[in-house]
Amino acid sequence: MTAIIELRNVTKEFHGVPALRDVNFTLMPGEVHALLGENGAGKSTLTKIIAGVHSPTRGEVRFNGDKLSFSNPVDALRHGIAMVFQETSLVPSLTVAQNLYLGKERFFNRLRGIYIAAQQFLQSLNFNVDPTKYISQLGAAQKQMVEIARAVHHQARVIIFDEPTATLTPEEKHHFFGLVERLKSDGVSIVFISHALEEALAISDRITILRDGQHVITDKASAFNRDSIISHMVGRTLTEDLYQQKGRCARPYGPQVLSVENLSMGRMVRNTSFSVYGGQVTGIFGLIGSGRTETAKIIGGVVKRDFFHGGEIKLEGRSVRYRTPRPAVKDGIVYVTEDRKLEGFFETQSIAENIYTGSLGAGLNRTPIVSYAEMMELSAQWTQRLNIRAIDGSAKVIELSGGNQQKVVLAKALVQKPKLVILDEPTRGVDVGAIAEIHAVINELADSGIAVVVISSYLPEIMNLADRVLVARQGRVVEEFDIEEASEEKIMYAAVH
Amino acid sequence: MMVTFKPWLDRLLGRGRSALTVPPMDGALKPNNRLEEAPAGIHAAEPRSLALQNGRVVWAEGCKIMSAEEEVASLSHPITALAVSPQGRMALALDGRGITLEGDELPALQGATCVTAMAFEGETTLWVAVGSTVHPLGDWSRDFLEMRRSGQVLRYDIANRTLTVAAERLGFPYGLLPTPQGLVISESWTRQLVRLDGTGRLTLLKDNLPGYPAGLAPASGGGAWMALFAPCNPLLELVLRESEYRHAMMAEVEPEFWIAPALRSGYSFREPMQGGALKQMGILKPWAPTRSYGLVVQLSPEFIPLQSLHSRAGGKRHGITAVLEHDAQLWAASTGGNEVLRLNVREGNHQ
Predict the structure, then answer these.
(1) Rounded distance, CA B295 to CA B281, Å?
(2) Does residue B69 fall inside a structural domain?
(3) Which of A128, A330, A470, B166 has a C-alpha 20 to 30 A away from that of A349?
(4) What ipTM, to 2 d.p.?
């Protein structure tokens, strides 16, 4: 059988620095092929070459056995190659239906007809998204669904999914895997990039692992297990370091730092109450729509609670009500967003500028004049502490890998000397090596007496990090588990029922 | 200007005191059934005030002093509080009569009413908590609904027979614990613990408790045990905000059916909001907030909760007013449940 896509000895260099070196890759018709590796391993570069975003510096790309080079993504799409980007490429000012039909417009478009067709199409995929809604009104998970739907809608023969499940709930993931199976039976080839190794093992036929821009191994999925994948990815096994919840003792309760009492915000947060203690990691688990992010944002002053009877938030016994994040930051509360690209950093600014902005926000700058030397010193200090891999502090954040971007966001928050840190999905879209480093930072924070809240959809992460687990459902905290009594089944049961 | 209008604005917007919120019971205070599941205790009619005398635990039960084995003494008046000095001298607070030490009346404390707790500091000082200087102990719920702050802590110098008011305008002091840093006082109506130091200054140790604190006792590993006799709930907060309603209720309704904290509940369909409850997965889930509860909390030397023992809405061992740790056992007086409980003290999950 001829491979639908074949890359032979492909090398890609950016400004003379190789991102891919002599990589060989084949994708067979009707195959699900997982592409794994740490951030910066070259996965995105490889898929972007397939999708026509980049051209290879050396080597050749073959499509159905013919040597071919796509000049741009539209050219690739015309040949039936679609890519679902990690950074959503939807137009925020258009509706879901308009985005689905973008590039396939007719001379006369009947909007109602488009909405009906889009509704039927989304329903056929089991995606619960309103086609008349603007993209800007959707959450991260729903945007991802539209992105996936658009690729399927283009009837592509090759679909590249870059971290498609990172923002999906378990139920939505289940639908997504069903969709992948359906596409596969229709003869569609799928390249699947994910940091969730269990997913890759579960749905893929073959797995290719890249490390530092080089091909490490390609084999049948059944030939791998979690440990062997990680050891190929990073050269050592990290499973025990990352998810070793068994036998772990919780840290003792410190003083009550935060008390949330009957907090309400519209339909998203409904009369929720919980406490957060110093010197502990409080994990909050909940499905999308459970109100956990909204609760965290109210605490951090990012959004406002109900004007009438919105409940109380007490920071160290003092009632607080923030309308903007700045006073919250000054009081020692920092919220680290789940959507780092949109809310976490200034992408056109350097690492040093981003970190320094955090210190300015907390009012920690010594003089009103920005000192370049001070900024670079601060950057060097945090770059070293969090092991941010960049040439120096003047490197642009947008040029960094996901894991290093997340570390910059963390540095920007931690430079504010907080009493309470709320980390919303701290390791989303981050490779295993960086996850271990971020986990170590979180544990260090808790050990130093800071109250840490970790919101995560990934249960092993919650089980590994948290000293106590709060479960959110339908806008309120419905259950609390000590880590000794918690199990993934119990937590998930509480989150769903 | 804003200070003048703030209470009015808070009332309008449901903020501040008018937010009607209650502190969450989570973390070390996470509900469990340890108190309810404890082995059967000793039946006692409304036991109060536990103390250790000659190696045995004694408590007040109406006009009697009882121990696990026998009736220790019987007196003419109901006993509201008792304390035993390190050398075994017993002080008794007799309702409507005053305080006696080793059977002798203390003239300076003659006629003292509403004595909720007493504690010896060595052999020379007797601390006395007077819950209210306005109402007798039996009328404590009226004191609560009138939002009085008329409690006092008195210091009686045994050698010199002098009495001084160490602290006043307290919200129903119900527990006393002498420590090297000062006297720790639990104030029920303000739901807080304060420390009275040698200079007479009160320092806040812990506030925003999720219930109304009562007796305090030292814990073996340092720190303290604290009993909370009833839970705080939004309905009570609402009633406290509505003055006219409260006064009408007190004038027209029998005291046992007032919307107020209670030592026991569920004994009459006429009790406020007690009819509404449902059972879900075998657990009683009251849709109306429960009036009574059983709660004992272990506090660290820094007064951070370490572990807690609960008797929840469907339980019987409610209204815990006194605790005492002795010989690796925790004794708790369930005034609402008519029982003195003995529990094996095991370390909490987070020690």
Answers:
(1) 23
(2) yes
(3) A330
(4) 0.86
Out of B14, B23, B207, the one facing A261 most closely (by C-beta) is B23
From the CA atom positions of chain A, what is the Rg in Å? 23
Task: Please tell me if residue A316 touches chain B, with a CB cutoff of 8 Å.
Answer: no
Average pLDDT, integer, range A219-224: 90
DSSP3 helix / strand / coil % (chain B, rounded to 5):
15, 45, 40
Residue B124, chain A, CB below 8 Å: the answer is no
Q: Do A261 and B234 touch (CB under 8 A)?
A: no
- List CB contacts of A87: < 8 A, sequence separation 6 or more: A341
Q: Which amino acid, A86?
A: Q
Q: Average pLDDT in the B174-182 region? A: 96
Q: Which residues on B lie below 8 Å from A311 (Cβ)?
A: 19, 21
Output the six-digit token pair for B338: 């008519």
Residue with tokens 């939004």: B234
Residue A305 vs residues A255, A302, B21, B208: alpha-carbon distances, Å:
25, 10, 14, 22
Is A321–B15 a contact, with Cβ atoms under 8 angstroms apart?
Answer: yes
Nearest alpha-carbon partner for A425 in A412, A438, A441: A438
Q: Rounded to whole angstroms, what are the CA distances from A286 to A19, A150, A474, A481?
A: 37, 28, 9, 13
φ, ψ dihedrals at A343, nearest 5°:
-120, -10
Q: Which amino acid is at B151?
A: G
- The type of residue at A4 is I
In chain A, domain spans: 5-237, 256-496
Q: What is the nearest CA distance from B211 to chain A, expressed in angstroms?
A: 14
How many domains is chain B partitioned into structurally? 1
| DSSP characters over B40-62 | P-EE-SSEEEEEEETTEEEEEET
Residues 6 or more apart in contact with residue A289 via CB below 8 angstroms? A169, A474
Q: A446 contacts in B (CB within 8 Å)?
A: none
Closest residue in A to B18 (Cα–Cα): A309
pLDDT digits (tens, 9 = 90+) for A162-198: 877 766 777 777 777 888 888 888 888 999 888 778 8
The count of other CB atoms within 10 Å of the CB of residue A359 is 19
Considering the domain A5-237, what is its CATH architecture? 3-Layer(aba) Sandwich (3.40)
Residues of chain B contacting residue A308, judged by C-beta atoms under 8 Å apart: 13-14
- DSSP string of A111-137, one letter each residue: HHHHHHHHHHHHHHTT----TTSBGGG
CB proximity list for A394: less than 8 A, separation 6 or greater: A350, A351, A352, A376
For chain A, how far is it from start to end, CA to CA, in angstroms? 48
Q: Does B161 touch chain A (CB under 8 A)?
A: no
Round to whole Å and give the CA distance between A355 and A350. Answer: 9
Does A482 sit within 8 Å of B30, measured CB to CB?
yes
pLDDT digits (tens, 9 = 90+) for A455-467: 988 788 898 899 9
Which option is the CATH number for A256-496: 1.10.10.10, 3.40.50.720, 2.60.40.10, 3.40.50.300? 3.40.50.300
CA distances to A401, B129, B266, B288 from B276, rounded to whole Å, are 57, 37, 11, 6
